[in-house]
């Protein structure tokens, strides 16, 4: 249990609760949920420029990371076709992958296919079900993809000024503006209460908020004096109580709750807002192909990790379809911007390719 880990190392309840947010981030789970301690450890894996457990901003925004990978690939002869939706994987006589068919009818032939899509899209939409073992299909269908996350992107005309650490007179970013700011987490019980509300189909009345201001470190993201604020919030159920969907009214009502909370910590924040983009779990699924809106392509619970990710006997990146590999967040070791699943899958694919 996460609580036991935190109680062993720390005494301060606000510090424990702040750390606890990284144990439930992206997970429909409470700090009291068994196994939640793993998600915290997952978030402090690895290193950044020699610093263990450190995180960083990507200059130019997260898309710049994808562009860097794309440029490295094209420099070595890769061809990249953006905005070309894949319709299905092409299969040979023996059921092996032979390329992909695009929605516009184009067929791209290849000896190997690596899918960065979720296991649900890869195996339930892009492959004929009769080509897959029934128990495998059943396992993929049963993967817990519940997500509590609503992401809100905000444009503001001035830097937020927090009561606990007011802005400098010149309005320049201070050290805390360049970090991840966690709100509504003075105690783990607050997080548990927010989780409990969502399990009953209600967006949290006091949501857990992780607030970042990337423009504080990367001024090119916003006009002079203005900033972009990224709000990673939870808990919001995919389907609201009574089977209601997330219409515009529900979206704005929840966002207003989030902004009211921020206003309590940083008076004047609401008046500084120029625009906002609200992405609920169904929006994250529709726009980014995240099953259930889950940023990890499936819960990072102990029953869906290691040898069981995405399914037992298929944690080694190979799939029931020869020549088809899973290389995204739904593969071992799971989600996060670290590239481990992709690197591991590429090594397996290269090893197999040498024998073709």
Automatic annotation (TrEMBL):
Keywords: FAD, Flavoprotein. Residues 34-175 form the Amine oxidase domain. The keyword Flavoprotein applies. It comes from the Eukaryota. SUPFAM superfamilies: FAD/NAD(P)-binding domain. It is found in: Mitochondrion matrix. Its main location: mitochondrion. The keyword Flavoprotein applies. One of its GO terms (molecular function) is oxidoreductase activity. One of its GO terms (cellular component) is mitochondrial matrix. Gene3D superfamilies: FAD/NAD(P)-binding domain. Belongs to the carotenoid/retinoid oxidoreductase family. Probable oxidoreductase that may play a role as regulator of mitochondrial function. Interacts with COX5B; this interaction may contribute to localize PYROXD2 to the inner face of the inner mitochondrial membrane. This is Pyridine nucleotide-disulfide oxidoreductase domain-containing protein 2. It comes from Chaetorhynchus papuensis. The lineage of its organism: Eukaryota, Metazoa, Chordata, Craniata, Vertebrata. The gene is Pyroxd2.
